[in-house]
Amino acid sequence: MAHAQGQQHPIGVYLKIWGLLFVLSAASYAVDYFQFQGYLRWFLILVFMLLKAGLIVAVFMHMLWERLALMYAILVPPLLLLVLLGIGALEADYTFLTRGTFFGTQSAVPSVPR
Amino acid sequence: MTQPVLTGAGETLPTPEGFQGIVADYSSDQSAFKKVPWGKAMMWIFLVSDTFIFGAFLISYMTVRMSTTEPWPNSSEVFALTLWGNHIPLLLIAIMTFILISSSGTMAMAVNFGYRRDRVRTFVLLLITAALGASFVGMQAFEWTKLITEEGVRPWGNPMGAAQFGSTFFMITGFHGTHVTIGVIFLIIVATKVLRGDLDRQRPGFLTGRKGNYEIVEIMGLYWHFVDLVWVFIFAFFYLW
């Protein structure tokens, strides 16, 4: 055997996923085009984003057909970013309030009478 | 004389599935990632580290956007184009998204034809992928030019609102564009190897004595799909949010 056979799947799988990614991209563009706002906008953006990312990793990058040992080694560590996300959000809130207090036009706390 | 008993041949060991499979793979005292060439495992690990780089960029973007007291520029308007008298929001970005997804599709098919030893089709698909990637970089250059010269966006400020808009935009899209550019170069190198038949004749690479084979097309593909993957997140968080 010259070398081990790699990932072998019918071409149709890739074409279907390709089409699906086009539809999902069009859908996320439509979110902006029709100017959805507020929580609906954020929810739709996140859903379409996660679906697209999942399809790319699972099918185009063949993660679906790898053994669990590789899946877990690759997919679990990035979840640590959620901790950084939380820290960033906390810090940003604090900075925002501090800026409002010291530089804002409308002060977050009532000004002290002189 | 008796034949020596062959031990430690990974393929002959039972490979259970599920959680037992994870334990068996990691404790097998051999390579942990079964049926995965080491080059592919290394590319995956590099991609995890790259995930952290882009993750850190996007999270710092979130942090500065949340903490600014100035209004954030409306990306839908900033990136709008006027074509034939019609004002279309985010048009260029949408086209760039579709181009990158198409290049991912052609890349996936190139990997497939590579494993089928279809040299010419693999080469053509890799070249189409590289061309789509290059056009993406070209559009990004156009986008940057428009933003700098017409909208007056600078890393330290812009007329529309929060100064952090420019700094995060140039940082994140610049880093992504660099990745695409490196990917295009990488694609052209791999395409050349495919067309020359290096991979069929197992000719060693330029920097290594290892024999060439079609796994490098899949490894290249992983990098390219990752670039597309990062764009999915940038598109969602920077342009649409």
Topology:
The complex is a heterodimer of chains A (114) and B (241).
Chain A: H1 11-33, H2 38-60, H3 68-75, H4 81-102
Chain B: H1 18-26, H2 38-67, H3 75-78, E1 81-83, E2 86-88, H4 91-115, H5 119-149, H6 164-196, H7 215-240
Antiparallel strand pairs in B: 1-2
Helix pairs in contact in B: 2-6, 2-7, 4-5, 4-7, 5-6, 6-7
Characterization of this structure:
- Chain A is mainly α and 114 residues long.
- Chain A has 2 domains: 1-65; 67-105.
- In chain A, 67% of the residues lie in helices and 0% in strands.
- Chain A contains 4 helices and no strands.
- In chain A, helix 1 runs antiparallel to helix 2 (38-60).
- The longest helix of chain A is centred in the first third of the chain and has 23 residues, at 11-33.
- Chain B is mainly α.
- Chain B folds into 2 domains: 1-35, no CATH class; 37-240, Four Helix Bundle (Hemerythrin (Met), subunit A), CATH 1.20.120.
- Chain B is 66% helix and 2% strand.
- Chain B has a two-stranded antiparallel sheet.
- In chain B, strand 1 and strand 2 (86-88) form a beta hairpin.
- In chain B, helix 5 (119-149) packs antiparallel against helix 6.
- The longest helix of chain B has 33 residues, at 164-196.
- Classes of the chains: A mainly alpha (114), B mainly alpha (241).
- The interface between A and B is large, with 60 and 68 residues.
| Number of helical stretches of at least 4 residues of chain A | 4
CATH topology of the largest domain in chain B: Four Helix Bundle (Hemerythrin (Met), subunit A)
| Alpha-carbon Rg of chain A, integer | 23 Å
Strand content range of chain B? under 5%
Residue share in helix of chain B:
55-70%
Quote the distance from N terminus to C terminus of chain A: 88 Å
Strand order of the largest sheet of chain B: 1-2
Which oligomeric form is depicted?
heterodimer
The structural domain count of chain B equals 2
CATH class membership of the largest domain in chain B: Mainly Alpha
Helix and strand content put the structural class of chain B at: mainly alpha
The dominant shape of chain A is flat
Low-confidence stretches of chain A: none
Q: What is Rg of chain B? A: 23 Å
Structural class of chain A: mainly alpha
**Low-confidence segments of chain B:** none
